[in-house]
Design a protein that fits this description.
Elements: E1 13-19, H1 24-37, E2 45-49, H2 58-66, E3 72-75, H3 85-97, E4 101-104, E5 109-110, H4 114-147, H5 160-171, H6 176-182, H7 187-197, H8 204-231
Parallel strand pairs: 1-2, 1-3, 3-4
Antiparallel strand pairs: 4-5
């Protein structure tokens, strides 16, 4: 008897239903009939045609904007409302903050009863436990990668073999532009990689002169072509 004690909400029921393109026709009738049989007025039923993973559900947004304090939101099944357990609990928490009750017909969950409140609390504890596990796995993965000398994030764009070749050429005095061309590496990628590993040229002046000489050579290569174009 304790599980059926009403906590105190009005009898205004608002329904929400979501259908996917796969089972659209059958699911529409099934959900609508169940909501109407539960006492929801058809004029107060909101609907979305979208997969459960999608965030853009205009019908749900309209439903949550329409519903008022003292009302009860009714769904055919829990997975019709939330795309995940944390998302579902967030919606129900927002409803509770607005003094709106929640009912799921299939799972027989009703937050207007003490039994429904207990179920909701258990779901909340499970969601918090799930978030803690995910965080723990992420931190463990980062720690394992760090022990192996890796840093979390995107992998380097240059293989270790090509990086070793680039460092060898650079240490012999070649400019960064020349090395990037020789190894067909984008110059910005090479510069970012060198900055990431903390490489410094043996002589800043030599490195700078090398880049200047390389650019000068590049310009000199273009000059005869420019002359021919002007003569033409």
């Amino acid at each position: 008897m304790t599980g059926t004690v009403k906590i105190g909400f009005s009898d205004i029921l608002v329904g929400y239903m979501r259908v996917s393109s796969v089972d659209e026709r059958q699911s529409v009738y099934l959900q609508r009939d169940a909501l109407v049989q539960a006492g929801v007025d058809e004029r107060h039923i909101f609907q979305d045609k979208a997969s459960g993973a999608r965030d853009d559900r205009p019908g749900l947004k309209k439903c949550l904007s329409y519903i008022k304090s003292g009302d009860t939101l009714v769904v055919w099944k829990l997975d019709r409302l939330g795309r995940s357990l944390p998302h579902l609990l967030t919606i129900i928490e927002d409803l509770k903050a607005k003094s709106v009750a929640f009912r799921s017909l299939t799972e027989q969950m009703d937050t207007t009863t003490s039994h429904g409140e207990l179920m909701f609390s258990l779901f909340g504890a499970l969601a918090q436990y799930e978030r803690a596990l995910i965080h723990e796995r992420v931190m463990a993965g980062l720690a394992a990668a760090k022990r192996r000398g890796r840093i979390g994030g995107r992998p380097p764009s240059i293989s270790q073999e090509r990086l070793d070749m680039a460092l060898d050429y650079l240490n012999k005095g070649e400019s960064k532009l020349s090395v990037a061309r020789r190894l067909t590496i984008p110059r910005t990628t090479l510069l970012n990689t060198l900055e990431r590993i903390g490489w410094q040229p043996r002589s800043e002046s030599e490195e700078g002169d090398g880049d200047v000489d390389e650019r000068t050579a590049e310009n000199n290569e273009k000059k005869p072509l420019n002359r021919r174009r002007r003569q033409a």
